[in-house]
Design goal:
Layout lengths: L19 E7 L4 E6 L11 E3 L3 E2 L2 E7 L4 E6 L5 E5 L13 E7 H12 L2 E4 L7 E5 L6 H13 L4 E5 L3 E5 L4 H4 L15 E2 L5 E6 H12 L2 E3 L8 E5 L4 E2 H13 L4 E5 L3 E5 L12 H7 L10 E5 L1 H12 L2 E2 L11 E4 L6 H14 L2 E6 L3 E6 H4 L2
Parallel strand pairs: 9-12, 15-19, 21-24
Antiparallel strand pairs: 1-2, 1-8, 2-3, 4-5, 5-6, 6-7, 8-10, 11-12, 13-17, 14-16, 18-19, 20-22, 23-24
Helix pairs in contact: 1-2, 4-5, 6-8, 7-8
């Protein structure tokens, strides 16, 4: 038996380009192209490359702002691939400073950081905006920066410089949030460790990863609730920063992600929603010492998604008491904490009580030698 198959197709369409050109920027001493690559339904990759630079096998051979064209080569022996922005006859212009065509907001903010010379601190929840912009040639730094600010304002985004190293990009409804941010510390590069430009860099980083770095930078143990915002953090230091400036920068970025960092005592810092800043446990050394029956040397502690029973048993051991069974109606919670420094028993007790409180739970002493876990609202009655 012989089978015949006939495929009826329309006229062949050109294959989609593996990389898309979304902008060209011309600075006094260099040019660079804004590129975009999509794959497997993931967020787009958004490289910004100068002539001669390579990325994932693609090399930028030339950038011609007059023709709004960029030529790439895939691999060392691949055929040149020309990418072009839309340009009508007569629009050709040598040294055109900005030419964006559907440029992703994240790319535009990176360009804005370069031109302003400041670290951009932006909310993770900014709109998924794309910008179109065509300017004249040879804009200086100041008019170029103002042009970018106007383009951002047309998308409902506002800019606000802070000191000479930072600039906020935010929506109008975030002005009140920023008012709770502590003052920028006075830098003293002669007395502090200094981080060179670009060393602090997060690109769509997980919130918990950023908190781990924050803990290392501050030397404080982070206390946080089980639930945290599903934020992704993006920030890159544009200038050299002292350690205190880096911590302040992260405070600001996290605050725009609905996470307020509140220091407590010398060893701890809370990471909580801004609405909970005024209702946090206070460390009381004497009170903790009075509860600690078990005397032991300072030590490290670590919980990774520990359950309520584990937390209760450790607390009971420190107090020399017996833990009572959990009430089945008790709210569920998981606890994660890693002490940055060795803790005294009284400090460990504070950590356990604080972790419970952040998850709407509390410990209650029962009779002379027992302890149980109860809802925090019940403990306040």
């Amino acid at each position: 038996m012989v089978a015949f198959g006939i495929a009826l197709t329309n006229e062949a369409e050109p294959a989609e380009q593996p990389v898309k050109l979304t902008g060209i920027v011309v600075e006094p001493t260099t040019k660079y192209a804004l590129l975009e690559k999509h794959e497997n339904h993931r967020p787009p990759k958004l490289p910004i490359l100068r002539q001669g630079e390579s990325w994932e096998g693609f090399e930028v051979i030339s950038i011609d702002e007059n023709a709004a064209a960029v030529t790439l080569r895939e691999g060392k022996t691949g055929q040149p691939l020309e990418l072009k922005l839309d340009l009508t006859p007569g629009e050709e212009m040598a040294l055109r400073t900005f030419h964006f065509q559907g440029a992703h907001l994240r790319q535009v903010l990176e360009v804005y950081q370069q031109w302003s010379g400041r670290t951009v601190i932006a909310s993770w929840a900014l709109p998924s905006a794309r910008l179109d912009l065509k300017t004249g040639p040879a804009l200086g730094v100041e008019p170029g920066t103002e042009t970018l600010e106007q383009a951002l304002a047309e998308k409902g985004l506002f800019t606000k410089p802070h000191g000479d190293k930072f600039i906020f990009v935010f929506r109008t409804n975030q002005v009140q949030v920023l008012s709770s941010l502590a003052r920028l510390p006075v830098a003293d590069a002669t007395q502090e460790e200094v981080f060179p430009p670009g060393l602090i860099k997060f690109m769509e980083a997980d919130l918990l990863q950023v908190l781990d770095v924050y803990q290392e930078l501050t030397g404080r143990t982070i206390l946080r609730p089980d639930w945290m915002p599903l934020a992704k953090i993006t920030v890159r230091s544009q200038t050299a920063l002292t350690r205190h400036e880096v911590v302040w920068m992260l405070d600001a970025v996290l605050l725009l992600a609905d996470v307020a960092m509140v220091a407590e005592g010398e060893k701890f810092v809370f990471a909580v929603p801004p609405g909970k800043m005024k209702k946090l446990p206070k460390f009381d050394l004497a009170a903790g010492a009075a509860k600690a029956i078990r005397i032991s040397k300072p030590g490290l502690m670590k919980f990774e998604n520990a359950d309520r029973q584990q937390l209760l048993e450790v607390y009971a051991t420190l107090l020399g008491r017996e833990s009572l069974p959990l009430d089945p109606t008790l709210p569920s919670a998981k606890f994660s904490v890693r002490s940055q420094t060795a803790l005294q028993p009284s400090e460990t007790i504070f950590v356990l009580e604080a972790m419970a409180a952040l998850n709407y739970l509390a410990f209650e002493l029962v009779e002379e030698d027992k302890v149980r876990m109860i809802p925090a609202a019940q403990a306040r009655k």
